[in-house]
Design goal:
mainly beta; four-stranded antiparallel beta sheet
Length: 429
């Protein structure tokens, strides 16, 4: 099976999650530098009392006469000739450097912050690694949760990160943002697949024959007996997403929707080829067809118009995300025309040709977007990456991960799940 995950960071309701808001990073404090010396004037004059000499006791004193003037004494050195000297002070603070700086503005403790290793000022004053270590001026990933069973899809809301443990009899899980105790939302008799939340409930689908779509009120988290089976017999459902009134999900060959409160479902599309990445927003539903190699859309205002193909001949398109202007997805494999696994962009309208933002990737699977960047996981290569939405050189955020899969991002942190070692990870941006 292939997990497909996105994180929503715009008004859209995306596949892997709603845009969460994390505590803003502490504002940076300007650094100050210290002089290594003090300046003072030293007296270069001569003390006239010490320079005078006594006359011999019997030496005759010449009589110059009553009207004679005493000879003028030599002028004392003019103070204007004093010399400005740089005299080192034993109490002076050592000078700051580009990496050893004064972040707290306290002259008493000097240049207290090492920007190469200080986890509270990593690379810049006030840039916190939020639980991770700092090395060479960069924050390192840290473990939010361990001991999970094939964690895959992830979803982010304002307070928690959610994920599904994709094993038979697995569970839907969550943890407070930036760490805490992992909590079981609900146990499943089958294999949990996609996951989503809204302000009041948690939704998930099941990745197994005869799978169902479920809803659980947040007030009942931890009590699976309170979960409501919205619909059964949905097969291996990879993805689920919600908007203000409806829930959407995939089956092996269809995309369906129903009211959150239950009732009958509407079939939005049939004859699809392993629909996976799924999102809704601005009056449309979008998804990827993994084995079909297409990225498609349905206009919810005119569903009878059928499926609109936005891109074809893609290489096993998997995770899908979007902003107000563009769709972004990952090609898990190479394209039929010889292209490599890649990250791709296209206008939401499908009016332009797909544009490759990053190629030469290693089994990319999950994708998310935030601000000016697109983020993804290389499931085969074990890396977490990002690139500007306008393209450029991809940046590696983490390496040596164990089959990273679902990914989500907010203003301060990127999160992902490692399927092979059962960890859920975070990295301060």
């Amino acid at each position: 099976m292939y997990p497909f995950t996105v994180a929503r960071s715009s008004p859209l309701a995306l596949l892997s999650g709603a845009c969460g808001t994390l505590l803003a990073l502490t504002a940076s404090i300007g650094c100050q530098e210290y002089d290594s010396s003090l300046l003072r004037y030293s007296d270069a004059g001569v003390d006239s009392t010490e320079a005078s000499t006594e006359a011999a006791p019997d030496a005759p004193v010449p009589d110059a006469g009553p009207e004679a003037d005493a000879p003028d004494a030599p002028d004392a050195p003019d103070a204007s000739n004093d010399v400005l000297q740089d005299v080192p002070s034993e109490e002076a603070a050592p000078p700051c450097s580009p990496t050893q700086v004064d972040c707290d503005g306290n002259e008493g403790n000097g240049c207290e912050a090492d920007l190469t290793s200080d986890a509270t000022s990593c690379g810049a004053c006030g840039r916190s690694c939020l639980g991770g270590a700092c090395s060479d001026g960069k924050c390192l990933p840290f473990v939010l949760a361990s001991g999970q069973l094939t964690p895959s899809n992830v979803f982010l809301d304002d307070n928690h990160l959610y994920w599904t443990n994709q094993v038979l009899g697995g569970s839907v899980m969550r943890i407070p943002l930036l760490g805490g105790v992992a909590q079981v939302v609900a146990k499943s008799a089958r294999i949990p697949g996609g996951i989503a939340t809204d302000a009041t409930s948690v939704y998930w689908s099941e990745f197994s024959s005869g799978g169902s779509v479920w809803r659980l009120d947040r007030t009942d988290v931890g009590d699976a007996s309170k979960a409501i089976e919205l619909i059964s017999g949905q097969g291996t459902s990879l993805s689920v997403v919600v908007d203000s009134t409806r829930v959407y999900w995939t089956t092996p060959g269809t995309v369906r929707t129903m009211l959150k409160t239950g009732g009958g479902y509407i079939q939005l599309a049939t004859g699809q080829n392993t629909p996976g990445g799924l999102l809704s927003g601005l009056g449309h539903v979008f998804w990827t067809n993994y084995t079909g190699g297409t990225v498609v859309a349905v206009d919810l205002g005119n569903p009878d118009a059928g499926v609109q193909v936005l891109a074809s001949d893609q290489g096993a398109p998997a995770g899908l995300t979007a902003d107000l202007t563009n769709l972004y997805w990952v090609n898990h494999m190479g394209t039929p025309d010889g292209g490599t696994p890649s990250v791709v962009r296209i206008a939401r309208t499908g009016s332009d040709s797909p544009e490759v933002l990053a190629d030469g990737q290693s089994g990319p699977i999950g994708i998310a977007q935030r601000g000016t960047y697109v983020y993804w996981t290389n499931n085969v290569g074990g890396t977490v990456m990002r690139v500007l939405k306008t393209g450029g050189t991809p940046e590696q955020l983490a390496s040596q991960q164990q089959a990273p899969s679902g990914i989500a991002v907010d203003a301060a942190v990127v999160y992902w799940a490692n399927r092979d070692d059962g960890t859920v990870m975070a990295l301060a941006l």
